[in-house]
Amino acid sequence: MSINILKYESDIWKTANLLIASGIKQSDFPKFMMPFFALLMVESRLVREAKRLKEEIGDIDIEDFIEMFQLEGLGYNDFVIRKNKTLKDICKNDKAFDVDFHAYLKAFDPETKYLLGVDKGTEEEKFLDISGISGQLKKKRILFETVQTWSEIDLTPFNNSEITTLEEHIKRKWADISAETAGEQYTPDDIIWLITDIILSKIEDNDSFLTIYDPTCGGGNLLFGVEDKIKEKYKRPTKTFGEDWSDSLFALAKIESRFRNDSDIRYGNTLTNISFIEKRFDIIVANPPHGIPWDGYKKDIHNDTTERFVALPAISDGQLLFAQHNLFQLSDTGLGVVVHNGSALFSGDAKSGESNIRKYIFDNDWVEAIIQMPTDEFFNTGIYTYLWIFNKNKVAERKDKVMLINAADLFVPLKKSKGKKRKEMSDENRLDIVKALTEFKSNEFSKVFDKWHFYYNKQSIMLTNVDEFGNPIEMPNKVTKDSEVKEEKSIKIDVKSILVVDSFKENGMKAINQTEITEFDKTSYSSLSDYFENYYKAFVNSIDYKDDAFILFDNQGNSFTYDNNKESIVVKDKKQKESFLGNGKIVIKSSYKKATKTKAEHILVTAELTKDFQKDYEVIPYSPIEETNQKYIADFMAKYVTKPFEYLENSIGVEINFNKVFYKPEALRDITDITADLMELENDLANLEKELAI
To answer: What is the bridge-based pairing of β-strands 210-214 and 238-244?
Structure first.
């Protein structure tokens, strides 16, 4: 690629000076600049292709030439092709400019006018709005100067790949200043080269047709960049497919696609309206939005009938929806290289949508490798990003294997930052990654695992809490109708009164002296049921059996409290003889009873003793062999769980944690060095005190 094209980056931003002087907000620059950049792209390509065609066919009648040019399907502009007049020519006469510029825009073919937004009304569908923006600039009295500045930029000497590169640099700067690009990580050249190098290392150079798809193609830099790099190295025929939901970026990609040999770019939301549902692609590359909510089209996702989505992630981040879509559209022998952020690796617990999606992908053995990229690699985010290598046609020795590559330290610093991009990968860095992936062996920055390494059991259990002696409260047994002996769920207490002391509140002592309440404060409550609902029920529910100042008395003269030190229920008889019943709960309940024929309405207070159950879970390594997996669970429980428990549900989760895999403990300093430093600090402090005393 000729580096000269990047000199126009600064020239393009000169147009922003006119916008600033006219009071246009910086965040609106993309809206005002993108249509003109698209216009420049179209014109330069038309001029270049017209020149190419003339060289191929020689001097022929203009009408025949125009007919042949239009058959190329590149678009058309009568000013440019027939009259050989460009924007630069129009700007030579400022007095005729308004008429000529309008005629120039009208001279485009219908599709180009549709994409550029020529003479589109306010309510009409449009992707770019060249006429509307031009009207606003004319109102600001800077239309001529703006078009003149753009017209000085000559892109005709450059090929599609080079212009796409310039386009991406400009879009990156727009992303830096526009709040409308949250979640969009424009893919820099070095990452595009790495993705292409990975693809080239895994495909053959033959005559087979290669289809390349990007479901979130934006302006097309990743999609077209990968295609261009492949065609530089291999002679395989290719066709690119892409779709995007951003009006302006789709327009740029669509315009670009017409000047490529075989490209199909469509507009739409990949997740709700599949443009290529009937196709399966050889190669998929993508950098989908990260951390973008999908609640705006939740109904469409839930009603999707394609069976793409085996599970749904949290509504706050839809990137794993794109992952499932990509795998749905990847052919049975296809290869995918997709950018995700860290949440795709580990967000969501076992049985969550995110974990179930990862499990589905790993169950099908579609992940060959995951590469952790350096921070500060992308233009508008500094976080870690990851390349997922999806392969539906793994070689036999890689079946059920996954390689993790830690490329976080494989970079060279940029001499000058580009937005948040401060690092890039050199040729050597990319070569190291591709070599590791090709050899598929563990080394200092890569490790190969059985895929099961990333699975885990989340075993739920119901613990029975015990006291310091290891005892829960014992429940009496009962005989069922079927003559089965079962344990009672509780022990009823013939409650007489309850004393509650809350030392943190004024008048904190409260007592329940009767278990059937019929009286209430009629000045504050309209009825006994009102009193129960708005006061008494909450009061009883607030009684904490672990409160040292809580005492329950029964009608036999016994008192019940909870000893926090021994974690046991304590009962004292009439003679104050103390017994420990074991760990359990003292449960106080209240209920409102309507009046019956024999009894008036009342509030009933009851008490009972129950075992203290606690639901918990343990995370345990997983084995795909059921017998071995059960042994893992049983051995773990025997080693780490000391309380009585019952097994509940076991969920299988999948997560990938680079920090655990590549953790390097920091070397501890020698104690003598630390002691010496402390002594030096003490001496410095003593000297400072002497100086202050002086």
So the answer is: parallel
Tell me the sheet residues that pair with 286: 338
| SS3 (DSSP) at 596 | coil
Per-residue pLDDT of 620-673, as tens digits, reads: 999 999 999 999 999 999 999 999 999 999 999 999 999 889 887 777 788 888
Residue with tokens 């997740």: 271
Q: Work out the end-to-end distance of the chain between its first and last CA atoms, rounded to an integer number of angstroms.
A: 71
Exposed / middle / buried, residue 297 (Cβ in 10 Å: 0-12, 13-18, 19+): middle
Report the Cα 134 to chain-centroid distance in Å: 38
pTM beyond cutoff 0.90? no
pLDDT interval class at 154 (50, 70, 90): confident
What SS3 state is found at 353? helix
Q: Which of 76, 237, 122 is nearest to 68 (CA)?
A: 76
> pLDDT-derived band of residue 175, with 50, 70 and 90 as boundaries?
low
Chain CA centroid to CA 630, Å: 33
Closest CA to 171 of 404, 419, 449: 419
Write the CB contacts of 102 (distance below 8 Å, at least 6 apart in sequence). none
Q: How many CA atoms lie within 13 A of 669 on its CB side?
A: 7
> What is the average pLDDT across 377-393?
86
Closest CA to 242 of 179, 230, 227: 227
Closest CA to 413 of 387, 377, 371: 377
The answer to whether 290 touches 320, Cβ cutoff 8 Å, is no
**Does residue 174 register a pLDDT over 70?**
no
Beta strands in 314-363 (DSSP E): 330-341
CA pair distance 529, 516, nearest whole angstrom: 13
- For residues 332-350, one letter each, b for 16 or more C-beta atoms within 10 angstroms of the residue's C-beta and e for the rest, the string is eebbbbbbbbbbbbbbbeb
Strands 210-214 vs 509-512: parallel, antiparallel or unpaired? unpaired
Weakest-pLDDT range from 159-173, 234-248, 253-267, 291-305? 159-173
Torsion angle of the four alpha carbons 567, 569, 574, 577, in this order, in degrees rounded to the nearest 10: -40
**Angle (deg, nearest 10), helices 221-233 and 160-177:** 150
456 three-state secondary structure: strand
pLDDT of residue 690: 80
> Rounded CA gap, 9 and 26, in Å?
17
Please give the structure tokens belonging to residue 455.
Answer: 């699975």
In angstroms, the Cα distances linking 212 to 26, 228, 329 are 36, 11, 11
Phi and psi at 169, nearest 5°, equal -65, -40
Average pLDDT for the chain = 90
Listing DSSP states for 521-586 in one string gives -TTT-SSHHHHIIIIIHHHHHT--TT-TTEEEEETTS-EEEEETTTTEEEEE-TT--EEEEEB-EE
Q: Taking residues 220-248, what's their average pLDDT? A: 93
Residue 261 has pLDDT above 60, yes or no: yes
How far apart, in whole angstroms, are the C-alpha atoms of residue 512 and residue 595?
A: 22
